[in-house]
Structures are given as structure tokens and as C-alpha cells.
Amino acid sequence: MLGELLDNVRRRHPLVHNITNYVTVNDCANILLACGGSPIMADDIGEAEEITALCAGLNINIGTLNARTIPAMLAAGKKANQLGRPVVLDPVGAGASRLRTDTALGLLDQVRFAVVRGNISEIKTLALGSGSTRGVDAGVGDAVTKESLEEAVRFAKDFARKTGAVAAITGAIDIVAGGERAFCIFNGHPMMSRVTGTGCQLSAMLAAYVAASPDRPLEAAAAAVCAMGVCGEIAHRRLGELDGNASYRNYIIDAAYHLDGETLERCANYEIL
Hints:
Elements: H1 2-12, E1 15-19, H2 25-35, E2 38-41, H3 48-54, E3 57-61, H4 69-83, E4 87-90, H5 98-110, E5 115-118, H6 120-128, H7 149-163, E6 166-169, E7 174-177, E8 182-185, H8 198-212, H9 217-238, H10 245-258, H11 261-267, E9 270-272
């Protein structure tokens, strides 16, 4: 099932509009090309709606938020909603500053999202209206573990029901939840947390996967999260003695380029609750 959703991306080559951060914009573009999509970046209000209208999906990432891009995010999101194109929100660092928190909440209030992807602390901030994160990382006390998994799944399903969006909560254990079903995903490698932007890359991939299978947003999101985790595992096996996190970043993109549906089906490690 997940392999079919990857194959849809390869076959349909969805063009994804990214309003993302300048730390990881190049990596987001390359991971989209690697997974079978196509990227375009435009964050000026003068063209945001026009570019969105050309695209199959929209990825909004607030990682380097500024006053100039907020109106572009809102305009692009509303245009995508008007055209029936799926929108992904990555509320990077929500809870770390008032600007990030208020902007993420405002976007969630004014734009209909197909998927909201973040760490557990960011998603809790959106659910509660306030919170705290460790910069752009999840708070230590929020981490999803095997012991807290059932509680986290209940929270994710509740968030999905309230927002109408698939909740993609990523960490050591990933949860991708709709209102009634949740995929608990055990792929990935701890070293992925040592590479800036793996989450941002995943949000871009999510937009491509959901754009390629818009009638199956939950399954498409789960396929994207599994795919990123599998790529992290494959890339880690490739590391040599002198390789570090920079090589690992490149190997993850290489793994995404070569990943096929059969490999994803074989290597995806998840359960449905």
C-alpha cells in the first residue's frame, strides 16, 4: 500500500510550492527532486498566489519567520484552499517565541491544512495555544516513548479531529494520525537528529506525497514519513569511518533518489492503532 503511494509521486511528478526557511531551502528542493516531485520557491506577496495556482501542493514552513513572508504564507494558503490543493504546515519552533506561536496559530485558524507536521512540543503548542520548545527541538519531557505512545496517539487523533488535518508528529517514534486511525512508525536512525533540516525535508516530501494522492492524505503522509525513515536507515549503513553529518545529509538525499515502492513496502516498520 505504501509503495503504491511512493509510485504515485514518481509517476505524477507533483510541483510543490515551498515557502520555507533559508537554512534548509536547498535541501528541501533536492529531496523533492529525489523523491519524484518538483520544487518551486516563492515567498513574496507579489507572486505567492500566482505560483501556488501553478502547483499541485503547498508547503508552509515558519523556520526563519519574518514579517515580510507572513502575508505571503496566508495568501498562498488561502489560494491553495480555493483551488482544492493540499497544504502542509511545518510550525518550526512554535512555542519558542510569541511571533512563531501567534503566526502558526493564525495560519491554522485561516488556512485549511491537509497535514500539520512537527515535533511533539510544536504540536502541543498548537493544540493548547501556548507552550515551550528547546529552540526548534522537542522538549525533553515531551518525547514520545514506548511507555507514552498510547497517550501520544490519543492526543494526535484528537488534534486531527479538531483541526481536520492529518497530524504528523515526528521524533524517535513517529505518529501519523487522522481522527480515527494512527500509524506508529519505527523507522529512522538517531543520527538524523544531528542533521539540520531532516524535518523540513520531510515536510516538503509530505506535500509531494499528498499532492500525488490527494484522496488518501493519511496513508500518503504515513508513506512519506516511512520513506524518510527508511532513507535515514539506508544512508546510515553507507557511512564510512571519516563520514559525519554532512555526508549523512547527502546520503539521505541519495537514498530518497533510489528508493522504490518495493523497498519501501519491505522496509517500512509501523503498526496501526
